From TrEMBL:
Belongs to the class-I aminoacyl-tRNA synthetase family. TyrS type 1 subfamily. A motif ('KMSKS' region) lies at residues 225-229. It is found in: Cytoplasm. The keyword Cytoplasm applies. Homodimer. A motif ('HIGH' region) lies at residues 39-48. NCBIfam families: tyrS. Residues 348-409 form the RNA-binding S4 domain. SUPFAM superfamilies: Alpha-L RNA-binding motif, Nucleotidylyl transferase. InterPro entries: aa-tRNA-synth_I_CS, aa-tRNA-synth_Ic, Rossmann-like_a/b/a_fold, S4_RNA-bd, S4_RNA-bd_sf, SYY-like_C, Tyr-tRNA-ligase, Tyr-tRNA-ligase_bac-type. This is Tyrosine--tRNA ligase. It is an enzyme of class 6 (ligase).
Length: 414
């Protein structure tokens, strides 16, 4: 199986500029290829994973992946998929995001070459830009591309209109300097990718062997876009989305989606995935496919130790043995749950439930305690006169409160 067959089996090919030509090329030699990423934020999210994991798959077949960080393109804004102009970032913001994304990508992806398109774009003067590159772009052709035509009704600035030229310049530069012959991108980038092919053929000749490949938009079985939660994006930065939350996101995927996600987001073999697909049919209650998915993606993004911590937190919360967690693990496990600050002074249990908004009234708090619905740091307490000493748990930083079977609250000690 070559890399194109591998991608096809995994459902990772949406469009190709020349399927037969690309297949012949990757069969005949190891190629260089790239995918770009604009620094619109200081962390990647799981939407970035598919194209870059696709590059990683090429790498495992002996090819040479490049990541282009858009220090230049990110400073003006990509019109793709947007109904209005992106807010303009300051160059300080752009540079901060470039550094953060570069560091993050270097930790996750192995053997990639990282480049910044600001390095070759910034020295170009306006007249050189217009004479050497602008002259090679036909405005009518640009207007017919969906990324531009979809914005014409509401309007598009000249700045965002020129984004396509700058991105095409990336492909031309990489082709000239590093013999990069393939650009990979999301389905919404097809217009930009083909513009790059056109520029190279005009500048270097029609015989230049360059190709474009896009990855399909990933949808869940219910037709909704994959990758969003009630809390927003699922980030790769552990400070934004903790490894435990990240693990849980994958573990909680529906049976109808999990095999598709295993194909796209793991490097498991076809035989391994076929076995997991069978387990979904014969023993869905074990959630073996979901557990494997969560393990594989968490380990890939955050590493073995973070995976062990995520699994430990998962097991502890299932058993209710909260006291087995470290202070750091409590912070990770209960990131995002309802929380409130309390003082380090001794506090009556009823008052603690009111202070942390577990209950709205002392009467309700007393009933919950007496009915055995309240656990403090995993211990069931039924005496309403109990005094809680904040300094005695988790280095005096946290108190974990559980009401009922699953509803958690966190008291943070000031």
């Amino acid at each position: 199986m070559n890399i194109i067959d591998e991608l096809s089996w995994r459902g990772l090919i949406n469009q190709q500029s020349d399927e037969e030509g690309l297949r012949d090329l990757v069969d005949s030699k190891d190629i260089s290829l790239y995918c770009g990423m604009d620094p619109t934020g200081d962390s990647m999210h799981i939407g970035h994973l598919l194209p870059f994991m696709t590059l990683e798959r090429f790498g495992k077949f002996g090819h040479h992946p490049y990541i282009v960080i858009g220090g230049a393109t990110g400073s003006i804004g990509d019109p793709s998929g947007k109904k209005a102009e992106r807010p303009m970032q300051t160059m300080d913001q752009v540079n901060h995001n470039v550094e953060a994304l570069s560091n993050q990508a270097n930790k996750i992806f192995n053997g990639f070459t990282m480049v910044n398109n600001f390095d070759w774009t910034e020295p170009i003067g306006i007249l050189d830009f217009l004479r050497d590159y602008g002259k090679l772009f036909n405005v009518n052709t640009m207007l017919n591309k969906e990324i531009i035509s979809s914005r014409l009704e509401v309007g598009i600035s000249f700045t965002e209109f020129t984004y396509q030229i700058l991105q095409s310049l990336d492909f031309l530069t990489l082709y000239r300097q590093h013999n990069v012959q393939l650009q990979v991108g999301g389905g919404d980038q097809w217009g930009n990718l083909t513009a790059g092919l056109d520029l190279i053929h005009k500048a270097e000749g029609q015989e230049a062997k360059v190709y474009a490949l896009t990855i399909p938009l990933l949808l869940k079985s219910d037709g909704t876009k994959f990758g969003k939660t009630a809390g927003g994006a699922v980030w790769l930065d552990p400070k934004k989305t903790s490894p435990y939350e990240f693990y849980q996101f994958w573990f909680n995927q529906d049976d109808k989606d999990v095999v598709n996600l295993l194909k796209k987001f793991t490097f498991l073999t076809k035989d391994q995935i076929d076995d997991l697909e069978e387990s979904v049919k014969t023993a869905p209650e074990k959630r073996l496919a979901q557990k494997t998915l969560a393990q594989e993606v968490t380990k890939f993004v955050h590493g073995e130790e973070a995976l062990k911590t995520a699994e430990k937190i998962t097991d502890v919360l299932f058993s209710g043995e909260i006291q087995e967690l470290t202070t750091e693990e409590v912070a990770e496990a209960f990131h995002g749950v309802p929380s409130a600050e309390i003082s380090s002074d001794s506090i009556n249990l009823v008052d603690l439930l009111i202070a942390t908004n577990v209950d709205k009234s002392k009467r309700q708090a007393r009933e919950d305690i007496q009915n055995g619905a309240i656990r403090i740091n995993g211990e069931k307490l039924t005496d309403t006169t109990t005094e809680i000493e904040p300094k005695d748990s988790f280095d005096g930083k946290y108190i974990v409160i559980r009401r009922g079977k699953k509803k958690y609250f966190l008291a943070t000690v000031k």
